[in-house]
């Protein structure tokens, strides 16, 4: 410990935003660790305090905590790769949710909560994944060179140019 600083705790107000983030829903007061500069009396909150503030805000906003996200995945018997494929998200994003470096979006949090509460199941998400793959394949097929597509060629021959008399 630095002799010019003293470890203690302090109460600070925390603004809890509304779900849309546009306004303040409520203000709560919490006690967090801090360091006081003995000479100036200035208080500095620690990294642990910032993590605690973030965790409390998320809880009040109904967002899943990192450990809850990991517990959900393991309770479903999925690897990180498998849940990323199921949710159609990037592996880095998901990994950050489990470690707490980032939080899922509000809409993704709702999906995770629905999974957690058994409102939707893996089979349903897998069926969406199959539909998404099929749609992607269809888009790729449509994007092929039309000259090689017999259907396109027969439709193309039906097009008759019209000439306007300009009148």
What does this entry look like structurally?
The chain is of the alpha+beta class and 167 residues long. The chain folds into two domains: 56 residues, no CATH class; 77 residues, lambda repressor-like DNA-binding domains (434 Repressor (Amino-terminal Domain), Orthogonal Bundle), CATH 1.10.260. It contains seven helices and three strands. It has a three-stranded antiparallel beta sheet with strand order 1-2-3. The chain is elongated and about 70 Å long. About 8% of the residues have low confidence.
Task: Briefly say what this structure is.
This protein has helices at 47-60, 66-75, 80-87, 91-99, 106-116, 122-142, 150-156; strands at 5-17, 24-37, 43-45.
Topology, please?
Layout: E1 5-17, E2 24-37, E3 43-45, H1 47-60, H2 66-75, H3 80-87, H4 91-99, H5 106-116, H6 122-142, H7 150-156
Antiparallel strand pairs: 1-2, 2-3
Using the CA coordinates, give the radius of gyration. Answer: 27 Å
Could you spell the SSE succession in H and E letters?
A: EEEHHHHHHH
| CATH superfamily grouping of the largest domain | lambda repressor-like DNA-binding domains
Strand content: 15-25%
C-alpha geometry: elongated
The number of distinct structural domains comes to 2
Provide the CATH architecture of the largest domain.
Orthogonal Bundle
Low-confidence stretches: 152-164
The helix/strand class is alpha+beta
Helix content: 40-55%
- What would CATH call the class of the largest domain? Mainly Alpha
Question: Count of helical segments?
Answer: 7
CATH topology type of the largest domain = 434 Repressor (Amino-terminal Domain)
Beginning-to-end CA distance, first to last residue: 91 Å
Largest sheet: 3 strands, antiparallel
